[in-house]
Amino acid sequence: MKNIEMTALPGGKAIQIGPSQPLLLMAGPCALEDSDLCWKIAWEMKAICERLEIAYVFKASFDKANRTSLNSFRGPGLKKGLRQLCRIRQEIGVPVVSDVHETNQIDLAMECLDIIQIPAFLCRQTDLLVAAAKSGRVVNLKKGQFLSPWDMKHAVEKVRAAGGERILLTERGACFGYNNLVVDMRSLPVMRSFGCPVIFDATHSVQLPGGMGGSSGGQRKFIPTLTRAAMAAGIDGLFMEVHPDPDKALCDGPNSIPLDKVEPLLRQLLEIRKAVSRFTNE
Question: Which intervals hold domain DAHP synthetase I/KDSA (predicted)?
C-alpha cells in the first residue's frame, strides 16, 4: 500500500497517511454546534494529538442530511458551516473534514475542506463519487452499513477512474437485524487490500440506528473495546465523535466519547499499535 499525502497548511508539514506513518485521527462533534464549543474541542484535540504525535484532523458536519426525524438537529448548513470550518482551519491550524450529500456542494466545500467525506448511505452514488474525485481533495469513503467490505472495491474504482488517487476507506459497522450494528474485523484487512489506508469509525460503530424511536441511540461504553480490537487488526487511522458533554450533544450524543476520556484511550491504542507493528513490520 502506498502512503497518501494530505497537502500541508501554510507553515505546516504535509500529513502522510498509511502504514509506518503516525496514526491519523479525525475527531470532533457529530455536527457543528456553537462556534465556541467547536473551537474548544478543536483546540484541546490538537493539543492532545501534538503530545501523542498523532496527525489530527478536525471533523464535524455542516449538514446531517440523514437524520432519523425531520425535527432532528442537522447543523448550520452549507455556507455558514463552511465558514465555521474555515475559521477553525485557519486560526487553530488544523486540517478539516466534513461530508457532502450532493454534487452541487462540492465546489464550495473544496475551497475549505482538506478531506471530502462521502457518507455511508451515499457510498454507491456514482455522480457524487466522481465529483469528489475531481475536486482534487483526499476522499474519505465511509462503507455503507448495507455493503460487504469487498463491495467497496467498486466505490474505490469509481473514484480512481475519475482521477482520484488519494482515498481513505472507513469502517463503521454493518446492519445486524433491527436498530443494531456489528463490526466484522475482517473488513479492515479486506479494504486495506485495495491499496487504501483504512480508518475505523470508533463511535458510529456503537450506534443503534433509530434505536430511540425518533433518533438514534448508542452504546458508548463499547467504544474502547471495539477500538482496541480494530487497532490490533491493523488500521491507519481513527474517526471519533467527541464532545465535552455527550448527553447534551445536539447530534449523536449516545455514541460520542467524552472529551476527557479521549487521551487515556489514545495512549492505550498507541501501545497496541506499537506491539502490532513488531509482528507486521508496519
Answer: 14-276
| Domains of the chain, start order | 4-277 (3.20.20.70)
What is the CA angle 32-262-270, rounded to 5? 125
What is the length of the chain?
Answer: 282
Q: Across residues 169-175, what is the average pLDDT?
A: 95
Residue 145 has pLDDT above 70, yes or no: yes
Looking from the CA of 235 toward its CB, the CA atoms found within 13 Å total: 31
Q: Do 244 and 41 meet the contact criterion of CB atoms below 8 Å apart? A: yes
Angle at 45 between CA 44 and CA 46, to 5 degrees: 90
Q: How many CB atoms lie within 10 A of CB 263?
A: 16
Q: Are 168 and 115 in contact (CB under 8 A)?
A: yes
DSSP for 195-254, please give it. T--EEEETTGGGEETTTTSSS-EE-GGGHHHHHHHHHHH--SEEEEEEESSGGG-SSSGG
In this model, does residue 117 exceed pLDDT 90? Answer: yes
Q: What is the pTM assigned to this prediction? A: 0.94
Q: Amino acid letter at 260?
A: D
For 132, residues 6+ apart whose C-beta sits below 8 A from its C-beta are 100, 106, 116, 118, 139, 159, 164
**Burial zone of 19 (CB within 10 Å; 0-12 exposed, 13-18 middle, 19+ buried):** middle
Cell numbers that stand for 103 in this block: 454534487
